[in-house]
From TrEMBL:
Alphabetized CDD domains for the sequence: cupin_DddY (cd20283)
Entry annotated with the keyword Signal: yes
Designated name of the protein: Uncharacterized protein
InterPro entries with a match to the protein in the record: RmlC-like_jellyroll
Gene3D superfamilies reported in the protein's UniProt record: Jelly Rolls
Length: 414
């Protein structure tokens, strides 16, 4: 990272908008940017406003650090870019992440926000009226005046009242009990490309009040293909995006596709094989308890390992043998210390396995990530759908390691 970017990062992290922007951005696009909100502009009383201001300042810190990390070249041999893993086959394939146009647009959008924070703030709100996002509760809420002020249904209430499956409910109760330790423990660490800490330790109000969604916990046809421990042990929060706190439809007349937030996945789980029609990225924020604790599988849709078995004008049904000879080589390890960034092109089949056998207290630990999707504005391609794969031998049941899996890939329109 060059000295100008470090200075900008330090200034912004202290709540001061730096006058100088990175030289790889066009200042004409950044200065005096015009914002169109998605939905109506939120309004708040004077009593509410001080809490909104706190949440807004932590949001700006989170977004700014993320943009700096993505464009940090210090360890990548890239130009103004971090390097990302994109496919785990053939020993792993990587790219300079800022070679992707969607990434450049997302970074530009973030700088437009942080350099025009007063104009962008009109699209920002606590979203306390949304009944399907939740407060983790516990110590996280106790340490956050903002989360205490803006009331939401807690994880405890959610799993008690909205989850029917007893096994999922029990996993959810453990997830709720240990959530604070999962996101604040000493093993949570920012990758080196980040200019400062944006974990729950540094931004307690944002992590407590962002609004979390245990997206797999409730009953649905899709979740018949999921694992109980993931259904009760996974949640994400969105900060910037269509469902988040900062909801911007357009900047300077151009649609905004960025969705930025964080995810938490309990250890001893396999986030199921799945795919979606828009691109997605993750920064791993965990130091592993053992070398291969966090493993990723990612296979591009055009890989020779992916075989088409059926298709129509909207969906291509494919099969992929996860149990093939030397299948363990399809999985690569990563952590906050090494290969922390993963970029998943549209329709990439991927999964995340977290091995808890080397954790002293596995129930208190999780994989914590900075997460984003980059082209959510392209509604032609069903941006909101995560498609879980299934067992090819037993359709409708979870796809497991060691067998042939079957996935529905969206036929993307362009």
């Amino acid at each position: 990272m060059n000295s100008k970017m470090i200075l900008a990062a330090l200034l912004l992290s202290n709540g001061v908008v730096a006058a100088e922007i990175p030289d790889f951005l066009d200042a004409n696009d950044i200065n005096s940017a015009q914002f169109t909100c998605l939905g109506e502009q939120p309004t708040y009383s004077a009593a509410d406003q001080k809490y909104i201001d706190t949440l807004w300042n932590e949001t700006l810190s989170y977004l700014e650090a993320y943009a700096v990390a993505l464009t940090n070249e210090q360890e990548s041999n890239c130009l103004n870019s971090d390097k990302a893993l994109v496919d785990t086959t053939e020993g792993g394939q990587k790219m300079c992440i800022m070679d992707r146009r969607d990434m450049k647009l997302m970074v530009k959008n973030i700088y437009q926000v942080i350099n025009n924070k007063d104009a962008a703030k009109k699209c920002f709100g606590a979203r306390e009226d949304v009944n399907w996002i939740y407060n983790p509760g516990g110590e996280l809420t106790k340490n956050s005046p903002v989360a205490q002020h803006f009331k939401r249904t807690t994880f405890k209430e959610f799993f008690d009242k909205k989850v029917k499956d007893k096994k999922v409910k029990n996993y959810g109760k453990s997830f709720t009990k240990n959530f604070y330790k999962m996101v604040t423990g000493d093993e949570v660490k920012m990758p080196a490309v980040f200019p400062y800490d944006i974990s729950a330790r540094a931004l307690p109000n944002l992590w407590a009040a962002a609004g979390w969604f245990p997206m797999y916990a409730e009953e649905s046809k899709r979740n018949e293909k999921n694992f109980d421990n993931v259904r009760g042990g996974y949640a994400y929060a969105e900060i910037f995006g269509h469902w988040g706190l900062l909801r911007i439809d357009e900047i300077n007349g151009q649609k905004v596709g960025a969705e930025v937030g964080m995810t938490v996945q309990s250890v001893d789980t396999l986030y199921p094989f799945h795919n979606h029609a828009i691109s997605e990225i993750y920064y791993n924020m965990r130091v592993p308890a053992c070398v291969n604790e966090f493993k990723t599988l990612a296979v591009r849709e055009d890989s020779p390992l992916v075989k088409t078995v059926k298709e129509d004008d909207k969906i291509r049904k494919v099969q992929f043998d996860v149990g093939q000879h030397n299948s363990q080589t399809l999985w690569l390890s990563g952590s906050a210390n090494r290969d922390s960034l993963v970029y998943l092109h549209q329709n990439t089949i991927h999964a995340f396995e977290v091995d808890g056998s080397c954790e002293a207290k596995p129930e208190e630990r999780a994989l914590v990530s900075v997460w984003a999707r980059s082209n959510a504005n392209d509604k032609r391609n069903d941006y909101g759908t995560t498609r879980l794969c299934e067992s090819a031998k037993n359709p409708g049941t979870p796809a497991k390691r060691g067998e042939v899996i079957q996935c529905d890939l969206t036929k993307a329109k362009w």
